[in-house]
Design a protein that fits this description.
Elements (H helix, E strand, L loop, with lengths): L15 E4 L7 H18 L5 E5 L2 H10 L1 H4 L2 E5 L13 H13 L11 E5 L11 E2 L1 H17 L7 E4 L11 H9 L1 E7 L2 H4 L16 E7 L15 H4 L4 E7 L8 E2 L3 H12 L7
Parallel strand pairs: 1-2, 2-3, 4-6, 4-7, 5-10, 7-8, 8-9
Length: 281
């Protein structure tokens, strides 16, 4: 790496692999794009090599939680480097990430009553780019989910509303986010990194299709393409992760800042996911 100033020079001896990319420190891109590439590098680079990474709090926090021994191999954290990624994100590198998570955090099936239905709310300041579900409708959505849980005799005790922050507005530690999503049986909410980036903590090796975590993502359709790109979904990035993906389209009343869904469509979606003999869609 060519130093920008003489004072920034750090002499390294031995062999190293370096990874840098754009959107450094951005939650969604770090989880769905950067970590799969780092997982691939980890699988290919000899254990005697060190690593050079861009220095962000997010990168440090996630790697320390995911694999402390690998974190210790990062011998140089730099604020800015002129490098580009070997691979960009999803598909084949996700397989390496799945194996890495399974190695360092093996999945233990929680008791049925300890499983969680997680609803992702974009109501916190941490959520960027709008797409906040109308607050009044969000309360209705939560009630419809609870009603469907009762209708289908779900064993989960209640809906966990996940905003990514605690009651004081501080970002939840990685370990707490992991605990929420590792125990999730179903994840519901609008398109966003807080929901779909955390899919990586779901069971990476379910024994069969029926045991996959279910995800219901709210996305733009023809009547609501003003919200974001038409049919913009995380399914394209996470489609080889073992999750049963479903989508629900925003209604035409939605805008970039405030979104709405059809509650009857929500009921139909929940019945399709949770009903007796429900098919994998």
């Amino acid at each position: 790496v060519e130093p920008r100033t003489r004072e920034s020079t750090k002499i390294l001896e031995g062999n190293y692999a370096a990874f840098a990319t754009w959107f450094s420190g951005v939650f969604g891109h770090h989880y769905s794009d950067h970590l799969p590439t780092i997982a691939y590098l980890r699988s290919q680079v000899p254990s005697s090599y060190g690593f050079i990474f861009q220095d962000t709090k997010l990168a440090r926090d996630v790697l320390q939680f995911l694999d402390r021994s690998f974190y210790d191999r990062v011998v140089c954290w730099v604020s800015s480097v002129d490098l580009f990624p070997l691979i960009w994100g999803c598909q084949r590198p996700l397989n390496f990430l799945r194996r890495w998570i399974q190695d360092t955090h093996p999945f233990a099936e929680p008791k049925r009553e300890h499983r969680k239905v997680v609803f992702y709310s974009r109501s916190s300041p941490d959520a960027k780019h709008g797409r906040v579900l109308d607050p009044k409708q969000e309360e209705q959505v939560l009630q419809h989910i609870r009603d469907a849980m009762a209708r289908h005799n779900r064993s989960e005790r209640d809906v966990i509303v996940y905003t990514g922050v605690d009651k004081d507005g501080n970002t939840l530690p990685v370990a707490e986010q992991y605990n929420i999503f590792r125990a999730a049986s179903t994840i519901i909410g609008p398109h966003g990194a807080g929901m779909l980036g955390n899919l990586m903590w779901a069971d990476p090796t379910p024994g069969n299709c029926a045991n996959r975590v279910q995800a219901l993502e709210f996305i733009p359709g023809e009547d609501s393409k003003q919200v974001q790109g038409l049919y913009h979904s995380m399914h394209m990035r996470w489609r080889n992760w073992p999750v049963d993906f479903h989508v629900l389209l925003y209604t035409k009343e939605s805008s970039k800042k405030r979104t709405h869904i059809n509650l009857e469509d929500l009921d139909n979606a929940l019945d399709a996911m949770w009903g007796e003999g429900a098919s994998i869609v």
